[in-house]
Write a structure and sequence with these properties.
Strand order of the largest sheet: 1-5-4-3-2
Structural class: alpha+beta
Distance between the termini: 53 Å
CATH class: Alpha Beta
CATH architecture: 2-Layer Sandwich
Number of domains: 1
Radius of gyration: 18 Å
Number of helices: 6
Shape: globular
Length: 149
């Protein structure tokens, strides 16, 4: 009986871990979190994006005595794709504007991640906007690839 419970718990835990990565692109960075996000911000601006916000979660944690490895988010957009997607499915506004995160893991490796527009399309049941979704995916890939060079 204990083995059966353990197997079920492991199966549930494994599926949660796999499901948690659905639609997330993770890339290694050779730069620090600060420099990575500086590069993401600079690249996004060079591609006509507006930076809506940049938050440093480590600094937030430090203020309340919570130890967080370096972790930052940049929120950006151009204001062209988002409204088209929101017109199709208003709930997609929960995931817009676009965002890229960077963090340092326990081993010191820095990562960059973003959610794909394909995932947002499926999550929010967006219909008839495949061209827009493709452009958003291309933009996210372009910004992160350029920033990590």
């Amino acid at each position: 009986m204990k083995q059966a419970i353990l197997v079920v718990m492991l199966a549930l835990f494994s599926s949660v871990v796999v499901a948690g990565d659905a639609g997330i692109v993770k890339l290694k960075s050779k730069y620090s979190v600060d420099e990575t996000m500086d590069r993401v911000e600079k690249t996004a601006i060079s591609q006509g994006m507006r930076i809506w916000a940049r938050e440093d979660f480590k600094k937030m944690g430090d203020k309340i005595d919570v130890n967080i490895k370096p972790t930052q988010i940049v929120i950006f957009g151009k204001g062209r794709a988002g409204p088209k997607l929101i017109a199709s499915s208003p709930t997609v506004a929960l995931d817009l504007p676009l965002r890229v995160i960077s963090w340092e893991d326990k081993s010191g490796q820095v990562w960059v991640a973003y959610t794909t527009a394909d995932y947002l399309k499926d999550r929010h049941n967006i219909q008839g906007k495949d061209k827009v979704v493709g452009k958003v995916n291309g933009r996210l890939k372009s910004i992160t690839s350029e920033a990590l060079k």
